């Protein structure tokens, strides 16, 4: 057990001291937990997440945790039970509309952290949140949200067999979430999450 704690501590130090991407702004943000069977993957922290030092800590987070609350999972419990990862761990800066999308080199640079977390935790379930996160799991990049949201999938990731159930990004800029199709499929995804064995086990649902 002490070996695992030491490994986890070294990993966190490495993550928090990373400065590989010169265009990224601020310091790395993490939502890591020492032990879990569930990993969520966001896109990248926003400017408020960088200030508060935890993922989904502003308006998009209110929407996300509002979704989870519908299936009986409170924010504080989710944060303790789920390793909240991201495709990139630093704030990418602003674009003309919303935050800048991390470039392929930045995604690649940061992938070592997700790889470690998958190998360390060997999760039974991954919840990718938003298209950039879904891209890391769905091999066919030519898809629409309605092709994947509301579905349950399985694949090997870094040699670990995982189920994955995607959610759209909860940003207020994501108009898809407010369409009839979007609302229906988000609810379907939440129902699938609620019924998943590891969710039932970890959250007592």
Can you describe this structure?
With 205 residues, the protein is of the alpha/beta class. It has one domain: Uracil-DNA Glycosylase, subunit E. The protein is built from nine helices and five strands, in the order αβαααβαβααββαα. The chain has a five-stranded mixed beta sheet, with helices on both faces. β4 (153-157) and β5 form a beta hairpin. It starts with a helix and ends with a helix. The mean pLDDT is 93.
CATH class category label = Alpha Beta
Query: Are there runs of 5+ residues with pLDDT below 50, and where?
Result: none
**Count of DSSP H/I helices:** 9
The residue-averaged pLDDT reads 93
CATH topology: Uracil-DNA Glycosylase, subunit E
Strand order of the largest sheet: 2-1-3-5-4
Beta-strand content bin: 5-15%
Order of helices and strands: HEHHHEHEHHEEHH
What is the global morphology? globular
**Rg estimate, integer Å:** 16 Å
User: What is the straight-line distance between the termini?
Assistant: 28 Å
- Binned, the helix content reads 40-55%
Query: How many structural domains are formed by the residues?
Result: 1
| Structural class estimated from helices and strands | alpha/beta
Largest sheet: 5 strands, mixed
Total E-strand runs: 5
CATH superfamily: Uracil-DNA glycosylase-like domain
Judging by the overall fold, what is the CATH architecture? Answer: 3-Layer(aba) Sandwich
Protein name: Uracil-DNA glycosylase
Pfam family, one: UDG
GO biological process, one term: DNA repair
Organism: Leptospira tipperaryensis
